[in-house]
Amino acid sequence: MVDAAVARGGPHVLVNNAGGWTAGEQQYPWAAPDDWIASIALNLTAPMLLTQLVLEPMRRLGGGAIVTIGSSAGSGEAAYGSPEYAATKAGLVRLTTSLSGLDAEHGVRVMCAVPDWIGLERAQAQLAARTPADRAATPPLIPPADVVAVVLDLISTGRGGTVVELWGGQEPITRQPG
């Protein structure tokens, strides 16, 4: 993929947008190690590898933008149904802030969008299946277009190390390094 982008004069932008829970009913600590390790590989290792692969080509081009999609699952201290998923999404935020120096050193800006529950079909169906009381207590789902708008804004004007949180019914919260 990176070779194809280089052959076409890029890459200038990478959006790391992977996410998934451990397959099956069991999550960490009850899931088999191979199952939860696969979740870590998808949610944390893959974005790290892709970031590493595009870094040198972007540097040669004079810079670029990398936006990783995190999740509100990685925020806070409350219990979460898939601890391995939550840990990887928290790791993406820290990876982003840890790489903020790449902006000054190589012209590559690494940023992260951290949405709460996005209003995709699956989320809408899961919300509809909840009790009326649970639905009433759930913040509004994030419109997918809002996530896209934040990502496009980060690509065009974001500063390396920036993390933008999107919470249902609220304005985005932008945290910048330093």
TrEMBL record:
Keywords: Oxidoreductase. Belongs to the short-chain dehydrogenases/reductases (SDR) family. It comes from the Bacteria. PANTHER family: 3-OXOACYL-[ACYL-CARRIER-PROTEIN] REDUCTASE, SHORT-CHAIN DEHYDROGENASES/REDUCTASES FAMILY MEMBER. InterPro entries: NAD(P)-bd_dom_sf (IPR036291), Sc_DH/Rdtase_CS (IPR020904), SDR_fam (IPR002347). Pfam families: adh_short (PF00106). This is 3-oxoacyl-[acyl-carrier protein] reductase.
